Amino acid sequence: MRRGEALSLRWRNIGDGTVSVRRSAGMVRVAGMGAEMVEDDTKAGKPRAIDLDAGTVAVLRAHRKERGSMALQLARDDALVFGNIEGRHRNGELVSRQFARDAARCRKAIGEDTLPPIRLHDLRHTYATLMLTAREPVHVVSQRLGHASAVVTMTVYAHVLPGSQREAADTFARLVREASGA
After folding, report:
1. Residue 34: left if φ>0, alpha if ψ -120 to 50, beta else—which one?
2. What residues make up the domain containing 85?
3. CB burial class (10 A; 0-12, 13-18, 19+) of residue 142?
4. Domain for residue 70, yes or no?
5. N or C terminus of the chain: which is more exposed, having fewer CB within 10 Å?
6. How far apart are CA 64 and CA 77, in angstroms?
7. pLDDT tens digit string along 80-116?
8. Residue 25 belongs to what H/E stretch?
9. How far is residue 99's CA from residue 95's CA, in Å, rounded to a whole number?
10. What is the pTM of this model?
11. 67 phi/psi in degrees, rounded to 5
């Protein structure tokens, strides 16, 4: 999910093994009036359903139980899954800054050279890269990421798509040999 999609996720959007991504929250600034988090459609403009593994479902259930133990309204169906303690949207920019601080602290603890610098959004790229290099079909990865089409996914991640120039050359040579009967 994109940061804004996660920040607008509500408990009613989480089913038994699925999450329905319907909205996205982002910071809107108005000159002279400050800024506020506002919900709108997703980037692609259409909702999508994502299947979840059992481990993620268990973590979300535990998170909901913990939120409910703080205040019952934080676990209601219309409550934000990742809202603040008052149940309102978290500021996405602050979430990203906190992630950067946490990642820097981890890098310092385990060694600067062990873990590369990473932004919150890089987790999304890591997911896509891992799935594509594991040969998950491009259209499936594209749907899970919420891209408007698989063409977007192929354009952004062409450098990690399975196969290589060497494989293509070898395949073509084999096809020519087979066609010529050699």
Report:
1. left
2. 1-90
3. buried
4. yes
5. C
6. 10
7. 999 999 999 999 999 999 999 999 999 999 988 888 8
8. strand 23-30
9. 6
10. 0.82
11. -60, -45
